[in-house]
Amino acid sequence: MASRIIGTIDLSEYTIMDDLNYLNSVVKVAEEYDEFCQGYWQNLSLMNASGEAHDSLYRNSKIILPTHHLKKCTEISRIIQDNFELTGLKMVRTRNLIDGMVIPHKDFVELNKDYNYLRLMIPLQENSQCFNSDEFGVFQMRPGEIWILDAAISHAAINFSTNSRIFLCLDYAFSVENKNLNIFNKSAKILMENRHIYINRKPMNESDQDHIIEGLSKIISSFTLRDLLFAVSKYHFVYHVPVTAGFDWLKKAAIIAGDEESHNKINKLSRYLIEARELGERFSLTS
């Protein structure tokens, strides 16, 4: 299912600047799934299974606890308390991406299939150089909009600027038997909005793609593979090609180059990112 807007929160009712300044002051540390990203990518846990601020691992816990970061972000805490149902909520984070991208991947592939997973994304800052994408197109999220990001399909994100773009991310999980997927509480003041979300991208024909693949075949190697992966993953944000086109280009380039090592690595990576992985499994292109 395509990602979509389900409503908007009026952020003018909340004085969030102090909270944003605090979040931007937190020093980044290594975290779960850093291998998905290039540039500055930070996920700060506001609520999780352990209540520990450094814990960024998703779990299907029955109870979630506030972390030190949420206690410092009183207005973001109000946004959550005012608008969202806590039943079924498994994790709350803020997510920031600066001068970087998150390569195409699927989430939840390593989790229990007896649950339906729902991810909400609410931008807290304006940034015209920030884009998200999924298998249906490329779009920009505006401050206060509540998005269902279908993280179970291939998706990616990019920030072409050096400016912050903090999002509030709420992850829910409901048992497949549970038909009541209520995520808003009774006090919520959600404005309904309907707008065209997809941006226009430049066309790219097969000949253009063949030229890219040919060029890649001349420079692909175990030393360049990681850099090439992030480079080709940017194309779909500008050109009308599938979100995972870069994986296919690299596979074809490795075959042309006769580079079996790179071909095997990109095959294993695409499996890891979009097909199947175990909880806690990691993948490195450089090891």
Q: Can you describe this structure in just a few lines?
A:
InterPro entries: Asp/Arg/Pro-Hydrxlase (IPR007803), IPNS-like_sf (IPR027443), Pro_3_hydrox_C (IPR008035), Pro_3_hydrox_C_sf (IPR037037). By secondary structure, the protein is of the alpha+beta class. It has eight helices and ten strands.
Element layout with pairings:
Elements: E1 4-8, H1 17-25, E2 37-48, E3 65-66, H2 68-72, H3 74-83, E4 89-105, E5 115-123, E6 130-134, E7 137-139, E8 145-148, E9 155-159, E10 167-175, H4 206-219, H5 225-232, H6 235-238, H7 245-257, H8 260-274
Antiparallel strand pairs: 1-8, 2-3, 2-4, 4-9, 4-10, 5-8, 5-10, 6-7, 6-9
Report what the structure shows.
The protein has 287 residues and is of the alpha+beta class. It folds into 2 domains: 4-175, Jelly Rolls, CATH 2.60.120; 206-274, Orthogonal Bundle (Proline Oxidase, Chain: A,  Domain 2), CATH 1.10.1720.10. Helices cover 27% and strands 25% of the residues. It contains 8 helices and 10 strands. It has helices at residues 17-25, 68-72, 74-83, 206-219, 225-232, 235-238, 245-257, 260-274; strands at 4-8, 37-48, 65-66, 89-105, 115-123, 130-134, 137-139, 145-148, 155-159, 167-175. Strands 1, 2, 3, 4, 5, 6, 7, 8, 9 and 10 form a 10-stranded antiparallel beta sheet that branches. Strand 6 (130-134) and strand 7 (137-139) form a beta hairpin. Helix 5 runs antiparallel to helix 7 (245-257). It is globular and about 60 Å long. The model has no long low-confidence stretch (mean pLDDT 89). Pfam families: Asp_Arg_Hydrox, Pro_3_hydrox_C. Residues 17-172 form the Aspartyl/asparaginy/proline hydroxylase domain. InterPro entries: Asp/Arg/Pro-Hydrxlase, IPNS-like_sf, Pro_3_hydrox_C, Pro_3_hydrox_C_sf. This is Aspartyl/asparaginyl beta-hydroxylase domain-containing protein. Residues 200-281 form the L-proline 3-hydroxylase C-terminal domain.
